[in-house]
């Protein structure tokens, strides 16, 4: 099966990045959001990101920058009407809020209106794909496609098969991922797949180091950048991913693996989220700031 039209549901950081990368790779894309203002925000973010990429690629030629950006934008049609988006699509990639009930409700309604051939994929960070897939009657055309933030820059795509995913669906999506310019890795539907399972353990222990006052956040960040060549330290990464996302990923992991001490609540993250301090998306670098370096008083 060939994919020619892609529908992305959810225009947040991940969904807009996925729509952008698909458009850059030549696909026609429908980007679905719940209202016009969120659609406008998503399109503005896509434009900025495409400009950033094009300015690097076509340093000497401003007209090519404009051409690249307008081609990308012209391939994406933003809509709040899910029926129109689904009428001709080959694959739906869901990138909505990280909530199992919301995802199941969405896929169950999509299943009734999408064409039988349409492949369903979830970009969930932490929810088992099988759990979401069982809200549909197309388990053979269901899988996880897990992208990384920022989607236009990160080269990896995790392709997650459930036992029922057909070979045809899997192979179509591996080819699709490669056409998006990603290196695809395959993994089973295990908690956190590969990257988030390992990153969760790493960032959790970094926060615990801070809570024990072993070192300051900025020193831990510098240590991991210079001592392990990570592009971002753990606190920079937490701020970048968003503390609300980090909290909801931990809660999901705890639900599916309740005995695992790794997934116990984090006083630091919970306090910051309660205060609405979510990291870069709310304009702050809270996990890096000195005033939470000693959290004994939390
Ligand atoms: N769109 C287009 N270009 C972008 C971009 C975007 N959204 N974000 C960054 N860039 C480009 C910049 O233009 C810049 O290009 P240049 O080097 O050619 O000038 C280049 O990326 C580097 O950007 P910066 O100089 O601003 O900063 P960095 O060198 O720190 O790179 C980074 C930014 C690519 C984000 C890098 O820090 C990095 O790789 N960080 C780690 C990110 C990571 O671990 N992501 C995974 C998170 S886990 C996840 O997503 C899973 C989910 O389920 C939660």
TrEMBL record:
Keywords, comma-separated and alphabetical: Mitochondrion, NAD, Oxidoreductase
Entry GO CC: mitochondrial matrix
Subcellular location: Mitochondrion matrix
Reactions the enzyme catalyzes: a (3S)-3-hydroxyacyl-CoA + NAD(+) = a 3-oxoacyl-CoA + NADH + H(+)
Molecular-function GO terms, alphabetical: (3S)-3-hydroxyacyl-CoA dehydrogenase (NAD+) activity; NAD+ binding
Mitochondrion listed as a keyword: yes
Biological process according to GO: fatty acid beta-oxidation
Identification of the protein by name: CLUMA_CG021289, isoform A
UniProt source species: Clunio marinus
Complete-protein stretch covered: 1 to 298 of 538
